[in-house]
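Regression test case RT-17, inverse folding.

Input:
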């Protein structure tokens, strides 16, 4: 499909005029953008939410529960989340507090109705999503001969199809805005593989091909689509394995340690910044050298 075919998907009323000499500054270069972080209740997603809040952006975090495991900011930046009643929606009503720049919603990315409800809430509250960090993901690890079809399908549905679903929904508005940033969170496992993670590695590798295809489709609208590939990151999930196991993992990394979630968030923030406006379809490894050469 020719990327310029996007023109035919828009009515004359929807098609924006090219920016003139007196056009307002590009919001990508200014604070206050609407940022959606899926899987934002903990780990890498939580660190990303904190990073964008620190820049003055308006941040929405989604998770299946809608509950953020730790305080995101200090005082006024702590979210209040709730559940929206009514059959079929499944999206947390959420509420921003304090300065009003943080919203927490329940959203299962495998459920189209919940995704639509979450976006509707965001757009009603603040307007269209301008930066999407597609971070929601799960694992169902086991050796391939023991892996059930269900374990395979659940991971693909969340990690790959779920990212497709939220990105497609976000891009519809970004195209009309003629700007936007999409950052998909993949993994070093996408290109080096990992025993017991055939489903996970396949889902994360799929993000790369999908992101590059989407990047070509929307580049004419000044929208960038990129991928972050973290290595071993010190999160609560990894910490549950114990200090000995964590030290063994760290020894595998050329830099000799695990990454902190904040280091991944810094890389995500860069790809969402004005300084990365000429980068699209790229895969940025943040893995301490674990995947170098691939």
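Golden output:
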């Amino acid at each position: 499909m020719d990327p310029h075919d996007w023109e035919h998907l828009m009515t004359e009323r929807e098609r924006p005029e090219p920016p003139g000499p007196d056009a307002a500054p590009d919001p990508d270069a200014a604070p206050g953008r609407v940022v959606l972080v899926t899987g934002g209740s903990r780990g890498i997603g939580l660190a990303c939410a904190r990073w964008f809040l620190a820049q003055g952006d308006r941040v929405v975090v989604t998770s299946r529960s809608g509950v953020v495991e730790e305080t995101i900011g200090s005082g006024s930046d702590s979210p209040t989340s709730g559940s929206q009643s009514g059959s079929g929606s499944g999206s947390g009503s959420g509420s921003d507090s304090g300065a009003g720049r943080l919203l927490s919603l329940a959203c299962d990315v495998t459920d189209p109705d919940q995704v639509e409800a979450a976006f509707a809430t965001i757009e009603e509250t603040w307007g269209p999503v301008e930066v999407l960090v597609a971070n929601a993901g799960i694992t169902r690890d086991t050796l391939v001969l023991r892996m059930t079809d269900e374990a395979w399908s659940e991971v693909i549905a969340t990690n790959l199809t779920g990212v497709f679903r939220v990105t497609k929904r976000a891009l519809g508005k970004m195209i009309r805005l003629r700007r936007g940033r999409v950052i998909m969170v993949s993994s070093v496992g996408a290109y080096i593989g990992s025993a017991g993670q055939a489903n996970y590695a396949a889902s994360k590798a799929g993000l790369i091909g999908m992101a590059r295809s989407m990047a070509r489709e929307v580049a004419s609208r000044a929208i960038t689509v990129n991928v972050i590939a973290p290595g071993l990151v010190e999160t609560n999930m990894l910490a549950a394995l114990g200090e000995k196991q964590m030290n063994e993992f760290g020894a595998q990394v050329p830099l000799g340690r695990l990454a902190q979630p904040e280091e991944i968030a810094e890389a995500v923030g860069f790809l969402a910044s004005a300084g990365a406006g000429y980068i699209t379809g790229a895969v940025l490894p943040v893995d301490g050298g674990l995947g170098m050469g691939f």
